[in-house]
Amino acid sequence: MKKELRKAVIAGNWKMNNTPAQTTALINEMKPLVADADCEVVLCVPYIDIPAAVEAAKGSNIKIGAENVHFKASGAYTGEVSTDMLKEAGVEYVVIGHSERRTYFGETDQTVNLRSLAALNAGLKAIICVGETLEQRELGYTETLLKFQTKMALTNVKPEQLKNVIIAYEPVWAIGTGVTATADQADEGNGFVRAAIAEAYGADLAETVTVQYGGSMNAKNAEELVSKVNVDGGLIGGASLKAQDFSVIVKAASK
Ligand code: PGA
After folding, report:
1. Best substitution site from 180, 217, 246 to test ligand 1's pocket, by max atoms within 8 Å of Cβ?
2. Pick from 124, 180, 134, 170: which is nearest to 150 by CA?
3. Residues 179, 60: Cα–Cα separation, whole Å
């Protein structure tokens, strides 16, 4: 295992929280707290907050991401946002295929793949989410499902584009529930993701891909989770809305 080949990435996923004014205030509070991070620090924010976030983060080590992107360049897709729009606004990362998108908004493995390809072809970094439900876990399908979702998301992604791919393993039963996967469960899930990448692209390349854990990661459990060989940082929901908590997680990933 070659953890040193991969940079840890701590990404906040704000979901549908914070107005533009609240965005400015929270990022200004976070900036000094994460300034000496030895990991990549990203905040993925609602579309309407992007200009405020980019402005507030200017000159700092905080990178800004979006929470979704459409796969077409432009056209009659009411409510959607394109890669060009995000890039011009200063976005570098984009979350794709979050389980909330899959559950509430009809996102499928096919649309996750199309959105991922669009993001990568535009030079954005894609944080692609995969994860099993509790029922799927109890039926013993975790490995099969994680490998399937990972390979589907990466269909037609070129090997040289993997440097811009982050996979976030987020067990659905751990998201926003306060129930965190144990560090061993997180390591195992992330390992299944890495094995799927190895099956598709070879082991050497798979060792270079950042695989995050997400799901009730917080200031208390982050250090143990990121100490695992396959856990290269985290995708953080609730705890990314509090500057202090988020900075503790960033520090844990910087060790
Ligand atoms: P949570 O969310 O940290 O609030 O569980 C994680 C996520 O949905 O990315």
Report:
1. 217
2. 170
3. 33
- Residue nearest (by alpha carbon) to ligand 1 atom 3: 237
Maximum CA extent, the chain = 48
**Out of 40, 70, 98, 100, which one is annotated catalytic?**
98
- Average pLDDT, rounded, for the chain: 97
Whether 98 sits among the annotated catalytic residues: the reply is yes
131 CB contacts (<8 Å, ≥6 apart)? 99, 146, 149, 169, 170, 171, 172, 175, 189, 214, 215
Could you tell me the distance, in angstroms and rounded to a whole number, from the CA of residue 227 to the centre of ligand 1?
A: 19
Q: For tokens 């459990």, what's the residue?
A: 221
Q: Which residues' Cβ are closer than 6 Å to ligand 1?
A: 13, 170, 175-176, 214-217, 235-239
Q: For 103-157, write each residue's pLDDT tens digit.
A: 999 999 999 999 999 999 999 999 999 999 999 999 999 999 999 999 999 999 9
Token couple for 156:
């037609």
Distance from the CA of 74 to the center of ligand 1, in angstroms?
Answer: 30
Find where tokens 């082991």 sit. Answer: 203
∠ CA 95-97-102, rounded to 5°: 140
